[in-house]
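Students often ask why we bother predicting the structure of a whole assembly rather than each chain alone. The short answer is interfaces. A chain on its own may look different once its partners are present, and contacts between molecules only exist in the joint model. In this exercise we take two input lines together and write out one structure for the complete complex. Read the inputs first and try to guess which parts will touch.
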Amino acid sequence: NAGVTQTPKFRVLKTGQSMTLLCAQDMNHEYMYWYRQDPGMGLRLIHYSVGEGTTAKGEVPDGYNVSRLKKQNFLLGLESAAPSQTSVYFCASSYYMGNNQPQHFGDGTRLSIL
Amino acid sequence: KQEVTQIPAALSVPEGENLVLNCSFTDSAIYNLQWFRQDPGKGLTSLLLIQSSQREQTSGRLNASLDKSSGRSTLYIAASQPGDSATYLCAVDGQNFVFGPGTRLSVLP
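Now the answer. The structure tokens for the assembled complex follow.
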């Protein structure tokens, strides 16, 4: 049982480049989330999805796009990377928001934008 | 807007001590509160989840309490061990899922 898997684990980009981060979960969870974690700021929600084919904005959505074409996958895209997007990105999943089930997290993707 | 704070930001204790980590939140309209552990370079592991109707939850040496009306939760760690060294984050599940900044714990052998 792999849980939540994020790929890649590390990536270095130049300003203006694009890339996609992949999150996959094998727990049949409905909800999936993308967070970024920056020193001293905790985790902040970028986008989330409440089911296949749905997406919604979180606290800090600007500069990112997401897609949930399959229930088990949630993709985070950076169309034109900026140095301010240097961060550690975490994906999480859960059955439903607010039903007292814990979120399960991946190990993170460390992204540096030069 | 929900805001979550954690005190202290960092804590260093000798092995064997009992310790308390604090979490405060501004909006009491929550479904639950979770405590997570994060090891360096790793993701978050859920430790305890307290539903809004509950007062506390226990798992082994960990005990978490919730006082929703005052917007506070505490994580009590009994007989601390070097393996408990990590960052501990609380998160409230309400209108959105909001994390605190974490408490970095070091337990010295």
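Check your guess against this: The first strand of chain A starts at residue 4 and ends at 7.
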